[in-house]
Design brief:
Layout: H1 3-12, H2 24-29, H3 35-43, E1 60-66, H4 76-85, E2 88-94, H5 100-105, H6 110-114, E3 118-120, H7 138-162, E4 166-170, H8 176-180, H9 185-208, E5 212-215, H10 217-220, H11 231-237, H12 243-261, E6 267-270, H13 281-284, H14 297-312, E7 316-322, H15 325-334, E8 347-351, H16 355-366, E9 373-377, H17 380-389, E10 394-397, H18 405-413, H19 422-425, H20 427-442, H21 447-454, E11 456-462, H22 468-477, E12 481-482, H23 490-497, E13 502-511, E14 514-526, E15 530-538, H24 547-561, E16 566-572, H25 578-587, E17 599-605, E18 617-620
Parallel strand pairs: 1-2, 1-3, 3-4, 4-5, 6-7, 6-9, 7-8, 9-10, 11-18, 15-16
Antiparallel strand pairs: 11-13, 12-15, 13-14, 14-15, 16-17
Helix pairs in contact: 1-3, 3-4, 4-12, 7-9, 14-18, 22-23
Length: about 625
């Protein structure tokens, strides 16, 4: 699509009564280095965010503070495009460039008052490398860099301790001119070594400072074809990054925002012909499709290797292909050069129907939202069909040389998460077991017979070092069964796990078809006469089995044993957490009017306790949570 067309679409959205254009920001994000994309980013500041989201999926508000070490006013435009394309509606506050350390490390300022969800700290080399430093005195240079690093790290830590949001810093590219300013090659090597040590410190900052994450900008720019900065703009306006670098940075900020908020994509749906292999299976036959060690077959093998690596980290793989299903099954079972097999996919939709219908069936089968799906295809027709029919789906058009396809999937897919847990690594097997349960249910005469036949077992346990990463992940990624519609931060979750005033529980589910792993968690404040469920989340994988009621029964037992006479639960309604609200109604929590912030404090008396039962579930719980090991829920 021409740049002029994209600008016209952006301007059209500013008119009164404008119709929504949910695909615009994705198309702008595909060409972020163009002047049109930057101009569109400025125009979109005046556009209502709802006009840029898919129907029923408005962009999520995100308060973004910019505390840069250089002039970064122009950075808001590419950031807006990247964040809107990732599903966020940003509101910006930009601090003056010469006040970064003061705003971060000083007393409470307007930066704190803004209440940012995400604070960006773009930093360039002059923060650490003194102007006019003597390259012939490496000891003095190291001392200056060390001193400046200590001031920067202390300021970031001070702000991170004050904010309730996340803080994003970046590794710092060293301009080539700074390196070439050292005449001796040994001196250049010493400066390079010093600079890499600095960037390692920046990367380590995220490991040792709560709420801090790091964008490895130095590595991301290794394949960026443009300059680090425009010399004239740097001299004239103290702009440290060229527009292309700002676009690279903005895309990675959007990726970090997805990870921090649990909005990373969950499922990669792949075409087959000229996507997973070269050639057309129906025309060329299984023996002639292009795979292996020679070009172009090795390019398609690289796509498979990339997909396999994603699967091993918890991304679900599926197929949507116009092909003979028997022939596809044969290739997935038998082709000697194929890295992916049938067992690597949670769904294979091969046939002659429209691909948007295939994607809908995949989403229904997996019980995931369309906004969790990425569709990759080499056909411009199929990509446009899905873009228009299913605007929630992220579409990756694999155009051009197949040697670039694997990198394109990784760059545009949005498979971002804070960490990879053991449950993630087993996710494909978990979803295949779901299919077995579905087939088993078809042979039962009633839902009750099906549930009793599953042999469901629920284990409730206090959070520990092994379950904490999964609890944090569930809090960020769960939308439907999530009482407050958002999540506690990792730092807050860890503090609650160590606090005697709180109970932090994870629960696991298993049945005759296998172990589902940790599927839910509860954050509870323990008061003398009342336990307050500050949040409860549960994966959609175990919906409609009564698991939430079994867990609530165990928590009610624990609260009674501790002397409490009631449970309370905080509910903040969102467009997607209807299942969580219905659960509170079913369990008998009394209705409540929302507070000013929209929170409803629902209360349940523990005499008689929860109303709903799940007699088909065996619950095992620690003594502190009301042990019911070996007993059925009454």
């Amino acid at each position: 699509m021409a740049d002029d067309d994209l600008l016209t679409r952006a301007r059209r959205l500013t008119a009164p009564g404008a119709a929504a254009d949910p695909g615009l920001t994705a198309r702008l994000a595909e060409r972020p280095d163009t002047p049109a994309a930057r101009e569109a980013g400025r125009i979109l500041a005046a556009v209502e965010p709802r006009l840029l989201g898919a129907p029923g999926h408005p962009p999520r508000p995100l308060r973004v503070a910019l505390a840069p070490s250089f002039t970064a006013d122009q950075l808001a435009a590419p950031l807006r495009v990247a964040l809107l394309a990732a599903g966020f509606a940003p509101e910006f506050q930009i601090a003056a460039p010469d006040q970064q350390l003061l705003r971060l490390g000083g007393a409470v300022t307007d930066l704190d008052a803004f209440g940012a969800d995400l604070t960006l700290c773009p930093v360039h080399e002059e923060v650490f490398l003194p102007r006019g430093a003597d390259p012939g005195d490496p000891d003095a240079l190291r001392g200056a860099v060390d001193e400046r690093w200590e001031r920067f790290a202390a300021a970031v830590a001070s702000y991170a301790a004050r904010t309730t949001g996340s803080v994003l810093v970046n590794t710092v590219p060293l301009p080539a001119a700074a390196l070439r300013g050292v005449v001796s090659h040994r001196g250049r090597a010493a400066l390079s070594r010093l600079w890499r040590e600095l960037n390692l410190r920046l990367l380590d900052l995220a490991e040792h400072t709560d709420r801090v994450a790091v964008v490895d900008l130095e590595t991301l720019l290794a394949e960026h074809p443009g300059p680090l900065r425009d010399g004239r703009l740097h001299a004239f306006a103290q702009m440290a990054w060229a527009p292309g670098v700002e676009s690279v940075y903005s895309a990675e900020v959007a990726a970090c925002a997805r990870a921090l908020t649990g909005r990373g994509k969950k499922c990669l749906v792949l075409d087959l012909d000229n996507t997973l292999w070269g050639g057309v299976l129906g025309d060329d036959g299984p023996e002639n499709i292009q795979l292996g060690s020679l070009y172009p077959g090795n390019a398609y093998t690289a796509v498979q290797r990339t997909a396999l690596a994603l699967r091993r980290q918890g991304v679900l793989l599926a197929v949507a292909s116009k092909n003979d299903p028997d022939l596809v099954a044969r290739v997935l079972d038998e082709h000697p050069a194929l890295l992916l097999r049938a067992a690597d996919f949670v769904a294979v939709e091969a046939g002659w129907g429209p691909k948007d219908d295939s994607i809908r069936r995949i989403a229904d089968q997996l019980n995931i939202g369309l906004d969790s799906i990425v569709f990759a295809d080499d056909s411009a027709f199929e990509c446009d069909l899905v873009r228009h029919s299913l605007p929630e789906v992220t579409v990756v058009h694999l155009a051009g040389d197949p040697a670039d396809h694997a990198a394109t999937i990784l760059a545009r897919g949005g498979f971002d998460s804070l960490t990879t847990t053991d449950t993630d690594k087993e996710r494909t097997g978990l979803y295949r077991a779901r299919a077995q349960r579905h087939r088993f249910s078809a042979g039962q005469s009633s839902p009750e017979e099906y549930l009793h036949g599953l042999g469901l077992r629920v284990t409730l346990r206090a959070a520990d070092a092994y379950t904490l990463p999964r609890i944090v992940q569930l809090g960020g990624r769960t939308n439907q069964f999530n009482l407050i519609g958002t999540s506690h931060s990792e730092a807050d979750t860890r503090r609650m796990a160590d606090s005697p005033q709180h109970a932090l529980y994870a629960f696991e589910v298993a049945d005759r078809f296998g172990d589902e792993g940790v599927v839910g968690a509860l954050w509870i404040a323990r008061e003398s006469d009342c336990w307050v469920i500050e949040n409860a989340v549960m994966s959609c994988r175990v919906f409609a089995r009564g698991v939430e009621h079994a867990v609530l029964g165990a928590v009610a037992d624990a609260a009674r044993a501790a002397g409490a006479d009631r449970l309370a639960a905080d509910l903040r309604r969102t467009p997607r957490n209807g299942p969580a609200a219905r659960f509170l109604d079913e369990a008998g929590f009394a209705p409540a009017a929302p507070d000013a912030d929209g929170t409803e404090r629902r209360v349940l008396a523990l005499d008689p306790g929860p109303a709903s039962t799940a007699p088909w579930i065996t619950v095992t719980a620690p003594a502190a949570a009301g042990s019911r090991e070996g007993h059925l829920i009454p």
